[in-house]
Amino acid sequence: MEDSRLASMSPDELRAAMRTLGYRTQNDLAEAIGVSRSAVSLWLEGKVGVPRPIAMLLRMLISAQRRAF
Predict the structure, then answer these.
(1) Is the CB of residue 13 less than 8 Å from the CB of residue 54?
(2) Which three-class secondary structure state does DSSP give residue 13?
(3) Roughly how many angstroms between the first and final C-alpha of the chain, as a whole number?
(4) Most exposed: 18, 29, 50, 51, by fewest CB within 10 Å?
(5) For 31, left (φ over 0), alpha (ψ -120 to 50), or beta?
(6) What integer pLDDT is reported at residue 51 of this predicted model?
(7) Rounded Cα–Cα distance for residues 51 and 67 (Å)
(8) How many CA atoms lie within 13 A of 34 on its CB side?
(9) Which pLDDT belongs to residue 8?
(10) How many whole angstroms from its chain centre is CA 58?
């Protein structure tokens, strides 16, 4: 069984991750992780898959945020 942290991320999961981490806009997320806003837009529309390293980074940030509180 594949570790879910290594999997890509669905558009819905990406939206949820953005909310959880406090990124209100595509631009906010893009600036925070060093990608273009258009890349984030394509991921959210499901036209392009979220790269696995980005999905892993977001999951790690969420995990770290949950431990901090």
Answers:
(1) no
(2) helix
(3) 30
(4) 51
(5) alpha
(6) 94
(7) 25
(8) 3
(9) 85
(10) 5
